[in-house]
Structure formats: structure tokens, C-alpha cells
Task: structure prediction
Amino acid sequence: MLRLVCRSYRYPAAREPAVHDVAVEIRHGEIVGLTGPNEAGKSTLGLLAAGMAPAVVGGAFDGYLEVDGERMTGRPGYEVAQRVGYVFQNPATQISQVSSTVFEEVALGPMNLGLDRAEIVARVEETLGRLAIGDLALRDPRRLSGGEAQLVAIASLLAMHPAHLVLDEPTAQLDPAGTRLVGAALHALAATGTALLVIEHKLDLLDGLCERLLLMDHGTVVRDGPAETVFADRLLEALAILPPSRIRIARAARAAGVRFDEAAVVAALRPGPGGLDAEAGR
Amino acid sequence: MSGPAPGAAAAGRERRRGRIGWLEQTLAGITASIEHAVFTEQHARERGFLQARDPRAKLAIFLALVLAASLSGSITVLAGLYLVVLAAAGASHVPYRYFVKRVWLGIPLVAGIVVIPALFLVPGPRLFDLPAGPLHVAPSLPGVVGGVIFVARVGVSVSLALLLVMTTPWADLLKSLRALHVPQVFVLILSMTYRYIFLFLHTVNGVLQARKSRVVGRTSGAEQRRWISGTMGALVNRAFKMSNDVYAAMLARGFTGELRAYSTYRMRTTDWAVLAGSLTVAAVGVLAGPFLP
Result:
């Protein structure tokens, strides 16, 4: 289980805390969504949960991070990183630049874990297959499109089989098909017991993916509950965040005078693993 | 008073275009640098003579031959070493034109300038004496010979370094440095620098392209300078943030400071033979040098 208690976290040279008064627990096998408007502190919370802040980013942190009952605060960044993976928003940052093929790029993390060669090959092939990017295996990772690079960056973390994983807008550059693949891969990963925190603006991705949703605003968590409950909360729209398509459609239909059992229809439209893509128009 | 002649106005426009052209050239240069670096790694992945060698053997060969070139005062030995380098480049499918041009276009500018004073200051018989007003241009024979040997040494050493980098993937090169007990902190700095340069150049490229796409018409020199200084400040900020991100991303991949490459190393009989041959060539070059012109 990952537990983060943050009374206050301030970036270096910042006067105001970016995150404050937050206590989050993520159990093994649980997928937790994290959403909120711009500048709400989502990415910062992700960095804190992954131990990157303050270990790497610096800043003043009042609180603690606990992974499976062990305090991580004050430990070297690489030690925490081996317990909690982090997928960056920008895949260019994540790509190592020292591998000449996608296969080697995805193998880099497992190699750093000191796994034997057969295990590394098996994990890389399995991960590339799961994200349907097996055909990229021999491509140069520095010459991929944005979407391809993002899938490779995600694959490079998934291949490490992290016990806890934080993903910062993992589908920002992906097409609907890629988004579905990532959603399905995250579901499969959670089924193996990995605790996942997915930071995302697109609630259609989180819909069907996570059971629990955190909503942040002004550096703190203002809603923490079952995804269905938070999706239906009017606060989302007050914060200019669009609820999932099925909820918006149901509301629009009701507003147009259509009479139906809204709760039943919304529940029936709930997507399966992988989430629903607004663009796909399902 | 009449306005400027059409020719002068056109020249003025050209000059102004020249300022914008300088920016475009910078952009093109940065892009070319990135492409060249990627291109270099492509050669390292080809199936050639040096690419097939164990990187540790290659590094040892490189060090031995550079040492031989540095210790040699014979132009014959240096020419011989350069022929060996060219033969190795050919056997490794490195394009001669690119390889030779990349070395010899830069060296006269750096090493050549360094040796110019020596041409005139080293005592000895003068090659010629050209009066130039109150001065005399009179290079000495020992000065010229010393200058040629110096430039040849630098040329051979740089060619060896380039050949090593072109035929060895960067990760393997760093790992072999560790195998030769080069301090980890040094290897780590090299590794980070390599990663960082790529990302930084991409950022600079993006900034310049964004500027180019937003600017309509011409800007004055003062505006250009203002923009450049502003951009430099913004890039420092971005660079700082990026350095944190790059390091954090490496940590997220389980990086502990020790470099790991997917390829496994095994010294084969051929590697040992090539290493022994190269060490012999280096030793012969150093020992025979004093007896050769």
C-alpha cells in the first residue's frame, strides 16, 4: 500500500505551498484517478507520491511517504523509484537517449533491476505485445512520433512490473486506439496487484478504468470517493472539468425533456476496461 | 533630397534578410547537429570490422594508438598510423568523405592557429624571407616541420576518437569506460551530458521554430538582440527544470548510477588478436619513430 501524508509541500523559491493538507492511500491492485483544473497541484501530488519530490525536485516537504509500511521520506531517489514507478507527461524526458532500438529502450528498466537476460526478453516482448507496439521493436526510439514515443515510455515502466505506479497524463499524445490499449494494459497491471495513480484531464479515460477518483483544487484534495460519485458531482463542472461523455449525454437528454431512468442509463453506458474515448464516439 | 537608389535599397533589404538568415542558419545548424549525432549512432549499428569488436578492446586499441601518435615525432609513423585508421574505417563501412571531411575541416582552424607562432619563433634555417614593410615573413624549417608533425598528431588522434565514437554505441562506450575503471562519477557526467544535449537542442530548436512561425515581416537588429537575450534567460530556466526531469526520469527507470547496456561483452579470439596487433603497431611506431624521418 502507498500512503502519502502531505501537510505542506513548497517548490524551491516558491512562497505558497503547491500541495497542502492531503492524505492519500492507494491499496495494491487499486486504480485511483486524479483530476482537477490546471494549477490544482495534480502533477506535484504525483511527484510526491513517487518520491521524486522533494528528493529530486527539492523544496520543503512537511509530511511523509510510506510504501508497504516503510517510510520513504529521506531515502535516496533511486531507492524510492524502485518501489514506485513514474511515467512522465513528456515522453521525450522518459526516453533514455542511450538505446538504439525500442527493444533495448524498454529493456533498460528491467536491466537496471538486475534481472537475468531471459526474464528481461520475456518482459519486454510481453509489454510490447500488450501495447501493440511489437512492430516498433527495432525502430530508433529517438525517431518515433509523439504517440509512439508515449507508448514506448509507458512500456518502459510497465516492463519493470512496479508494485506502485504513478502516471502523469499517460495518454496526452495518444489516438483513441492507443488510449484504449493503455487503459487495458493498466487494468491488466492492476490485476497483478500493482497500485496505480493515474493523473488525467480526460475523464473518459478514467471512466471505466478507476474505481476511485480524487479531485484536486488549489493544492488540496476536495473530493475523494467512488468514481461514479465524483463523476456525478456538480463540482466537476464548476471547476470547468467535463464529466464523462455518458453522464453529459444523459444530462443533455434530460435537459431536452427526454424522460428515462437516468441512473440506469448512465450505469448501462459505463465502459469496460480501457475506458471510453470521447473521440471514438462509443 | 532623393531616396536611396533601388540597388542600395535592395542591398539594405539583403542585409536585413541576412540577419534573419543568420537565425535560420543557427536553427539549421542545431538541427544538423542533432541529425549528425543520430547518424553517428547508425554507423555504430552497422555490421563492420570495428563494430564487431568488443568495445573494451576498441577502447584499449584507441588509447594505445593515441599514445603512440602523441609520443611519435616522425611524420612517417604518423602517416602510417593514419593509413591504419583509414583502412579500419573502410573495413567498418564508415563513409570516407564524411569521415575525412569532419576531421580535416576543423583541425587546421584549431591546431593550425596554435602552431603559427612556432613557425616563426623556432630557431633554424629559414625556408624563405619575404619582406613585408618593416617585418620579415621568414618561417624556419624546424618550425614548419614541427608544425606539420603537431597538426598530423592532432589529425590522427581526432580521427581515432571519431572512429571509436562512430563505430561504438554510446551506452557500450560508457560501459567499457567503467570496465577500464574510469571513475563512475566521470562516466555518469558523460552519460547525463549526452542525454541532456539531445533534449536541450530539441528545446532550442522548438523555441526558434516557434519564433519563426510567429514573426511576420522583418525585425530590427535591436529587436533581434532583445529577443535573443530574452530567449537565453528563458532557456536557462527551462534547462534547469529539464535537468531535474531528466535525472528523475532516469531514477524512475531504476538508474542507480551504474550504467547497464543490453549487449553482453565477450572477448573473442579475433578481439584478442586485433588488440595484440594494434598494441604491436603502437609499440613499433614509438620505437621506430626516432630512426625514421
In short: Chain A has twelve helices and ten strands.
